[in-house]
Amino acid sequence: MDTETETLINGKRLKPNQGLPSNSADGAIIYDSSHFQLRSRDRHVSYGSINGAVPLLENNREPEMPGRQSVTFRRLPPEMLTTLSSQFESLDYEPWESRVFKEENSRKTPSSLTKQGVIRWVVVFFIGVCTALIACTIDICVVEITKLKYGFLKKYIDKCVTENCLYIPYLQWLGISCGFAFIASLLVTYGEPVAAGSGIPLVKCYLNGINVHRLHRLKTLFVKAAGVTCSVLGGLAVGKEGPMVHSGAAVAAGLSQGKSTSLGFDFGILKEFRCDQEKRDFVTGGAAAGVAAAFGAPIGGVLFSLEEGSSFWNQNMTWRIFFCSMVSAFTLNVVLSAYHGQIGQLAYDGLLNFGKFPDIPFALLELPIFIGMGIIGGLIGALFNQMNYHISVFRRRFILSRWAKVLEVIVVCSVTVTTGFVMIYCVNDCKPLGAKDDIDFPIQMFCEDGQFNAVAAMWLQTPEASVRALFHDQPGTHNPLSVGLFFITYVFLACWTYGLSISSGIFIPALLSGAAWGRLVGLGLYRLTEGAAWADPGKYALIGAASQLGGIARVTLSLAVILIETTGNLSLGLGLMLTLLTAKLVGDCFNAGIYDMNVQLAGLPMLPWSSPPLCYGTEARDIMSKPVVVLREVERVSTILSVLEETPHQGFPLIFEDRFAGPQGKQNSFGMLRGLILRSQLKILLKEKAFCTSPTGGTSQPPVPLETFRMYYPRYPTFQGMHFTEEERSSYLDLRPYLNPTPYTVPMHASLPRTFQLFRALGLRHLIVTDDNNEVVGMITRKTLARYRARICCGTIDFVELPLGGHGVQL
């Protein structure tokens, strides 16, 4: 829990999620110290805390400044859908300029800095290579097992059509698919729940500064790769491209540390990169490498990390991340080309190969059509997100046990197979099988000799192959009725599937469903124009795919570049960008993107790009947490142990003078600020027993070196196994060599937008609020700022304050 202040009033502790008091209309509040409650003139309200801290009482605040007008944030009730989770901690992106850090930094030479820079490039290179190899392994397994699966089913379908035993291939299809889906669900549900879904929302939150536990474990990487392979083989409406972002991030987080905490093995290298800031930069590159491997789009990978992933960016990272993406795409191209028998040729750009589009004529008169398709994509995407939102709410309320989650996966898989088989049986869409048709398993069903069932061709192949078929098949290949029926069924199946306890992605289902209705638009224009060259159904299938994915994920710039790179057609760039922008604007009028909605459901305290508008009258003293748990520069060991055992806070201001002599409910400051110390650092110092006997500090032992702190990163010691004698408890701990003497502070009169911008731009974890005398008066953390939201809809702004709770859910 990322709370930094204590919830103590008159020696009693309050629960951190009891909720904040609601002010009356006139703001008259009376403090009742005997019952820990606030009473207004017309009602009685419970008094509690948010973020483990008690808010500043009205009678302790300074008088309003002339002309100051602050907005009123409406406090929402502590419900599941409006509660921020208190489980997640923040990451320490701020450089810790302690005395031991400065001493180590002073010993560096220009050659050591050059060596460190070269090592960064080497690590980035191996991140790209390893990410590509994982992608190749997933793709080869899917291709080979898919050949066996659909080849087996084709044999029995062709046989049973004449022998009237089609129930046999149906049961075989059902059994094989449910078997793979069962394995995929077991891996996630009982193995590593954090590996569920695509992982993109969690990677976004990590790069935003949230420490998502077990996100980058070796076990998580294995479950993600194996799980998404089984999910695709199970025939579910999922794709394997989205999870590559999570896989690349996990690879980067592991390789950059030079050790495996899960295996308990330390190579003794890359120790200088064992901190949150360095790890974050490598994870950003790994996420970009995952996109590059999935789509063969290195530039799109960089832009995706910039647009959807990283919250912090600098110029030095740009080239390294682009290099990582290029290495990933190149490695995958070489390996897959060799696998397909084209050694030495670069013929396979990514896992998702759309095929190269010819030079299709493009007219400016088509731009209104593209805008109209963007509107359709935005509306369908908003409907998709809203339906998935309600399905996810249902899951979080009623499907709680692990066996129920596995059972739901089996049910969805059974419905998917049954739907596909019923469509194949009922829709007799027969087309002649030509030499140009790229169909691996043509099913004849009830068609004449030399013909194949077009509906069966869409179901009995991987979703990527279906997308490619809709892009490049001849205009007369698909019946509009069949394509429309496929779109309706598949979009609902994809909506139901996304959010299951399996590793899956939303990219391919969105592209496939969008390509289906986009081809319908193209077929209509093709017939209306009597086969005009510009009315190519494949081109409009591409526009529809982009519009659908843009309406669901609300991705614009990076998706446009990805589609341009994967199709090799730059002439459609303007149309794609216009369609994506329209889809995003239309979708945003109704709800948020699918990733942001998942973050909201999980209660993750993700900070947006900017603060709520019109809040310059709200000051830091209005939102800060108080009272604050503080320590002295030289503190008794027993006091530190008591603070760590009784509070969940992750950072403690160090003061020069103790101000806890008076009643805590009335004191306005807690001492002169001297620095800040982290909970993890205190644990390491206690583990190393760097004690002294004098209350003034000083010891004959040298300070604990910075290398020791890196050795424990990222799993810091716990109190289990720590034993202290009475003599050690009565000793002192000199914190001066380890504290950050210049933590970021903000005056108590600073506005909310300025406070938010300082916290967000610098990637802070703690922001200390001080008065005019540099005395500590409060603390602002991530959850302090994430609580305050502004909902803008139909020209009105609703200012809300979210409560804190204990729920934390998988994405």
- Rg (C-alpha, Å): 29 Å
Low-confidence stretches: 1-63, 659-666
Give the strand line-up of the largest sheet: 3-4-5
The average pLDDT value, as a whole number, equals 84
**How many individual β-strands?**
24
Shape call: elongated
Q: Tell me the major beta sheet.
A: 3 strands, antiparallel
Describe this structure in words.
It is a single chain. This protein is mostly helical and 811 residues long. It has a three-stranded antiparallel β-sheet, with no helix packed on it. Helix 13 (463-472) packs parallel to helix 15 (507-528). The protein is elongated.
Keywords:
single chain; 811 residues; mainly alpha; three-stranded mixed beta sheet; 26 helices; 10% strand; elongated
Concise structural overview:
With 811 residues, the protein is mostly helical. It has 26 helices and 24 strands.
SSE inventory with pairings:
Blueprint lengths: L7 E2 L2 E2 L16 E3 L4 E3 L4 E3 L27 E2 L8 E2 L3 E2 L8 H8 L3 H54 L3 H25 L8 H9 L1 E2 L6 H16 L9 H13 L3 E2 L4 E2 L9 H20 L2 H12 L5 H25 L27 H32 L3 H25 L3 E3 L18 E3 H6 L3 H10 L7 H18 L9 H22 L8 H17 L3 H11 L5 H16 L5 H9 L17 H4 L7 E2 L1 E3 H10 L4 E5 L17 E6 H10 L17 H7 L13 H4 L2 E3 L10 E3 L4 H11 L3 E5 L5 E6 H5 L1 E6 L2 E6 L2 E2 L6
Parallel strand pairs: 6-23, 7-24, 14-16, 19-20
Antiparallel strand pairs: 1-2, 3-4, 4-5, 8-9, 10-11, 12-13, 15-18, 16-17, 20-21, 22-23
Helix pairs in contact: 2-3, 2-5, 2-6, 2-7, 2-9, 3-5, 3-11, 4-19, 5-6, 6-7, 7-8, 7-9, 8-9, 8-17, 10-14, 10-16, 10-18, 10-19, 11-14, 13-15, 14-15, 15-16, 16-18, 17-18
